[in-house]
Each structure stands twice: as C-alpha cells, then as structure tokens.
Amino acid sequence: MAEEKFEFTSKAKKTLSILAIVGIVLFGLGTYFASTADHSEEGGHAEEMHDGAIMSDGNDGAHVTEDADQDHFEGAEHTEAGHGGEHAGNPSWLKRIYANLWINNMYFVGLALLGVFFVAIQYVTQAGWSAALIRIPMSFGNWLPIGLILTLAIFFFGGHDIFHWTHDYLYDVNDPEYDSIIAGKQGYLNTPFFVARMVVYFVVWFLMFRWIRKKSLEEDLNGGESYFFKLRGISAGFIVFFAVTSSTSAWDWVLSIDTHWFSTMFGWYVFASWWVTALAAITLITVILKENGYLKIVNTGVLHDLGKFVFAFSIFWTYIWFSQFMLIYYSNIPEETVYFIERLSSDHYSIVFFVNLILNFFFPFLVFMPRDSKRHTVFLKIVTIIVLIGHWFDFYLMVTPGVMKENGGFGLLEIGMAIVFGVAFLFVALTGLSKYPLVAKNHPMIKEAEHHHVF
Amino acid sequence: MEVTSPVREVLVTGNKTYHDVSHDICRHVEAKPNPKWMAAMALSLGALFVGGYALAITLWDGIGMWGLNKTVGWAWDITNFVWWVGIGHAGTLISAVLLLFRQKWRTSINRAAEAMTIFAVICALLFPLIHTGRPWLSFYWFVPIPNTWGSLWVNFHSPLLWDFFAISTYFTVSLVFWYIGLIPDFATIRDRATNKISKAIYGGLSFGWDGAAKTWQRYETVSLVLAGLATPLVLSVHTIVSMDFATSVIPGWHTTIFPPYFVAGAIFSGFAMVLTLMLVTRKVYNLEDYITINHIELMNIIIMITGSIVGVAYITELFMAWYSGVQYEQYAFLNRATGPYWWAYWSMMTCNVISPQLFWFKKIRTSLWATFILSIVVNIGMWFERFVIIVTSLHRDYLPSSWAMFSPTIYDMGIYLFSFGLFFTLFFSFAKFFPVINMAEVKAVLKSSSGEIENKK
Known about the structure:
Chain B: Keywords: Cell membrane, Membrane, Transmembrane, Transmembrane helix. The complex is a heterodimer. By secondary structure, chain A is mostly helical. Chain A has helices spanning 10-40, 42-59, 75-80, 92-124, 135-140, 144-162, 180-184, 191-222, 226-253, 266-291, 300-331, 334-344, 347-367, 377-404, 412-434, 446-450. In chain A, helix 11 packs antiparallel against helix 13 (347-367). The two termini of chain A are 27 Å apart. By secondary structure, chain B is mainly α. Chain B is built from 18 helices and no strands. Chain B has helices spanning 18-30, 35-61, 76-87, 90-100, 110-131, 138-142, 159-192, 196-205, 213-246, 258-284, 293-324, 327-338, 342-354, 362-365, 368-395, 410-433, 439-449, 451-456. Chain B starts with 17 loop residues before the first helix and ends with a helix. The interface between A and B is large, with 45 and 37 residues.
C-alpha cells in the first residue's frame, strides 16, 4: 500500500485564515453592539434585574429556605448588595465574552478529549471497521495543551464572572451574603483544589494521548501484532482514568456554574454531548477528506457505520437528557426544578431549549433513519454540521444562564467567537494530521476495514 | 470478501464441520435424560413445591404474612422483582445489542442467554403480581381496560403502570425473537428425528421450515428488525424500573442518574447469571469447543466494565448527596454506610465494585472456578444493591418517630425460593428439550472464525 499523507495545503490554510478573519470581524462587531447596548440601557438596568428577582421569588414562594436565596438567578441579588468591587464591576458585554470563551473552550476541549476516547475505545473493543480512519480522531488530541492554557487563562481572568462560588464573601459567616449551602461545598469547590484537578486532568489526558500516538506511529514503521496489544493496554488505562475524570471535570467546569444546583446525571450528560460532538466531527472530517481524494481505503460501509454512530448516540444523548429532565420535572423539588425554570421561563433561553432538542434529536433521528441517508456524503455532511451546531447550543444552554442570568444574548459576538475557535481547532488538528501517515498501514485490523461491508 | 484479522481469537475450536455442530448440540436433545439431569430437575421441583407452600399461604392469608410494616412497605418483594428483571437483561442484550455491534462471539451463548432472560422475566413478573395481595383482581389495576365505572382508570401517572407496559412489551419481543431464532434449529432436530412423535412435535415447532434461500432471507430480515426493536426495549425496561424509585421524593431514591445506572447494573447481573448457567451447561454437555475460554473472558470483561460503571454511579451518588447540601440526602447515604444496615451496604460495595476488579488479572478472568464463584458473588451483590436502595431509604424516613427495621419472615424467603424453583425448572426443561446453542448461527460464523484460521496460525 502506498503511504498516504495528508497535505495541509496553503490553499486550505488560506481559506481557514479568511474564515478566521471573518470570525474576528463578526466578533468585533458583536462586541461593539453589545457594549453600546449596555451603555444605552444602563439607566433601566438595575431596575430590570430587580424585577426579575421579585418575579422569581414569587414563583418560589413555597420554598424560601433560611439558608439560601433561591431566586432563579441567584447572582442577581449579590450584584445589588454592595460587593460591587469584585462582582458587579465587569460590564455585561465583558461577562458575555467570558461566558462565550468558556462555552467554546468546553466544547473544543471535549472534542479533543473524546477524539482520544474514540481511538481508545476502538482498540479496547478490537474494532476492525474503523482501523483506516483512526488517525483523524487521534489528531484532535493535539488541542489538549492549548485547552489547558485556555482553561487556566479564562478561569484566571473571568473566573469570578463565570463561577459564583469563587467569591470569598460567600464563605464568611459574618458577611450578609454568606451562603451556607455554597459554604458546605467549599471542600470541593475552592480555587486551589479546582486548579490542581484541572491541571491533573489535562496532563494525564495529554500524556496518555501522546503515548497512544507514539505507539501507533511506531507500529507504522515496525509492524507486527505486539503494538496492537500494547495499544489495547494503554487504551484501557486511558478509559479508566477517563471514566472518572469525564464526570468530575463536568462537575467542576459546568455543573458548578449553577452553584446551588445538582444532578447526579450531569457528568454523563456532558459526556453524551461531547461524545456525539466528537462522532459528528470525525464523520464530517472523514467525508471531507474523502471528497478531496484522500482515504480511498475508507469505503461506503465505514461511512455508513459512522452515520449509525451519530444516529445511535444522538438517541443516547436524548435518553440522558430526557431522564434527567423528566425525573426532575416529575419529582418537582424546588432546589432541582429551578435549573429548568430558569431556562424555560426566559423568552430567550426557552427558544434555545427547544432548538437544542430539534437539532440534536429530531433532526438526526429523522434524517438518519433511512439506510441510504447514512451512505451518501451529502446527508452525512448536512446532519453532522447540524449536530455540531446543535451541541454548541447545548453548551450554550448549560453555561450562559448561570453566568449571564436573564441577560444572555445571542448574536454576532457568539457566532464570531465560535468561528474563531473552530478555525483554531481545525488548524491545530489538521497540522497534527499532516505530520504522520493518514492511514495506520500496519494496524492488524486494516484489512478488515478495507473489506468492511455493511448490508 | 470478508476478512478476519489474525489478532482475533478463534470462536469455535476443534476443527468442527457443519455436521459436527449439528451432532454436538442435537444429541443432548435426542438422548434420554441422564440421572444428573433428573436429580437437578428434582431439586428444582422440590424448591418449587416448598416455596409454593409459602406462596399459597400468602395468597390465602394475605401479604400480612410478610415482614413489611407501616414504614417499610416494600422490601423483599420489590427487591426480588428488580433483581430478576435485571437478570432478564442479558439475553436480549447479547442477541440484539451485540448483533448490532457485530460481536460474533455472541452466537455460542445467545440461545441460552435469551432463554434465561425469558424465565427471569417470568420470575420477576410474579412479584408485582403477588404484592398486590389479590392478584386475581390485578387485571383491573394493571390493564387500562374500558370500563363502566366512569372515570375509574388505571393510574397513568404511576411508574408502576409504565412498568407493566415496558415489561410486557419486552417479554413479548424477547419471546418472539428467541422463538424465531429457534425455528431453523427445530427443523434440524426434525430432520434428524428417528421416531414419529419427535418428528411431529419438532416439525410443528419449526413451522414447516424448508431452508430455502428465500426463507433464510426472510429470517435474516426479521432478526434484524427484531434486534432494532429489542435494543431500545432493553434500555427501556430497567430505565422504567429505576423510575419506580427515582420519580419519588424519597432521599436515596430520587436521583437522576438512576436510569442508565440501573441499566448498567442489569447487564452486570444478567451476564453474571448467564455465566453461572453456561459454565455448568458447558461442562455437563461437553461444549468446550463452542463456549471457549475466550467467550468466558469476554463476558468477564463485560462484567468488569459494567461493574465499574455501577461503581462510578455509586460514587457519584455519594458525592452528590454531600455536594447537594440537602441534609436528608446526606443522612440517607450516611445511614446506608454506617446505620443499622451497614452490612448490606458493604456487602453490596464488596460484591459489586471490588470483586469484579479482580477480572483485571488475566489469570482470574480465564479461570473457570474463579469465574463461577465471582458470577455468584456478583448476583449476591446485586440483590443487596436493590435491598439497600429499597429498605435503607424507607426504614428511616422524614419522621424519626416512625423509624423502623425490616426483618423477613419465612414467607418472604419461601416465595424467593419459589422463584428459584420456577426459574431452574424452566431452565432445565429448556436445556433438555431445546438446542442450547444456536446451531444455525454458529454455522454462519464457522467459516470466518474457526479452524481454518487456527490452521493458518
């Protein structure tokens, strides 16, 4: 077999650069509009927030605890309560930028991590069909070190705006804003432990990724079956670490934004969202590479199976989504329902709430139901792009209401920044992909993949 | 062209031909029952009758014969129900989900696993039925029939009713799936039969199967459609069982992770039960070439993975109880681990989370004795899991003045024994009169995954 190598052409780089510039321009315009809107509304702003709080309290009437202010947007009152120095200091548009940085960061860190997870799961389950495209998800892992830097930087600069629990006054019994519920979580939610966990996750993920990649590349040179079994072992190790850290990182980075709220399902919910995103991205990139003449070895059967994965795990995501929502809805415990009330009682978020379900469940479910739609590149491209956008909105809905309260927006700022992140991610992944052979030619399953046939 | 990678293990050893497969499996159906089988059957029937006494007394005198009290209103009955339903997951998972994932090793174990599934679901259905107290009336309570009493309908809001729909649908589809798979094999037995009676019986059971290409094509299509239907059903059954608890506001019951975690636990205990039964069947029927050490190892790996998923879920629950800051949740978990039922909690933790980790050692997961013992340990653990969830959450509720303990009576235990009697009577009958391995499907993988590759190595 001739060695196939992906060439990251200057033309492709140029296209990406133009996209990046468009993204930056959109982001700039969006920021400008957001900041001018902020200034013109400044007068009525506090009033509006206050109304929001009162309305919320009314809804929760039955459930005013001594411990906590359970108004829907828990930060709203703190804003008015004299901690201006560290809390309300940042204008709304800046908060919006932090919130968006965090959404995109979570989304792409997940993509990078779940790319490595895909590789690991293929080795552990001795999958044959995917052997020819294993290098594509492997290239996602290159984003991990950048992900660490971004996560640290955004937390360092925007941490107070994103994470309510980072404020010291919540833990001071003498402070009027003392919050005994949040104080109860201090053993887990405190900056040193949080940062230490973050660094450990990334470092171990990255080292495991490098190890898997190293062995896979050695296999290209030397061949033999021993690498396969070695890779199985490393992958099993990665999966064990991942099984714990995918949940804990979701608690740290996403769940703790809505600091009072809790749900045991949340870790697996984030995992499901990340996993579908990664499967969609792998499918999309494979299809595009194939259309550009690469990956001749990947046949329609393999594309069909990728489509099935996106289909099946879209349903899995919905299953997790529904289980979490339904159980909270049915039990109707105020501490838990507040999360969904926040999202459903707002005119802005409720649209996103249903868009999330349409893009991530109904669309892939209905379009990928017939066999042939999973075998034609045009449908594969349409569905995976929709799913990729859909799960961005999923993260938007997880992050924004907790950070922006009722003032969340969606516009050029969001679109521009998502484009910039997307281009950066592609740049890193494709650069990584161009550095080694596109097909793991000595993979012992490669012949199975080549002759893979799906009815 | 179908290629099988050299790194894959051989699925059928001993250079079997198609004829060998038919012979090795049919001969047990054709032979006279041997004394060992008779003894096993007698033991099962004994359990059925002894347990039947407890059941009869319960039906006659009412469920007051059980150890329940006003605080603990569910205990052994629902524990046994959930336990059996959980066990009833492996068969359809193996035949449907592993079919979709193209795991060819399933062909040697799917038949027996599906049979076990159906019998386990029958045992499970027993408990909700008896716990109504007057099962002869439960038709009105479970089935939404049009009635002349105005608005008197079943309670559609109740997860217990959803259970009825989920389990009866699952049971029906599993039964059809299992039976469709049996048809070609019944035809094989029919064709080999030497006396008229068995020819007539197996001929009837095989629905006049003719083995034509068109017939096989229809068979394949139906199997795939049923696999597609069965896959969401496998997930739905234990999801809805978990909702019996999770929709409530009882600390320890209301937790959003329950649906997927119950499903993982069900697969865990189902695979363990399949192993317990298959290790014995394999030995008694000399099926070592079909159910190889490789099969056992793969099943042990699934047990290890699902056990670990369950472990992650336990830890998640524990963490979230603390993290939530809700004092009732915190107490419920503290009480589980250190309260009067601490021994049940730690039995559960040891059997379900720690013991499957032993399968990380290749020596242990390829040892027949270790596998046999651990497969039983796992199901002890899974019984305790349901007991812990149900009883420890109920016995100390919101009102300390009504805190109570539960202790089972001999009638609780007797009905559990009855369910074992029923299960094993059905399983041993199956093992004698039906082909325990799916001959048609084993033959289908014979070419790509057996002797030929072995010879090349």
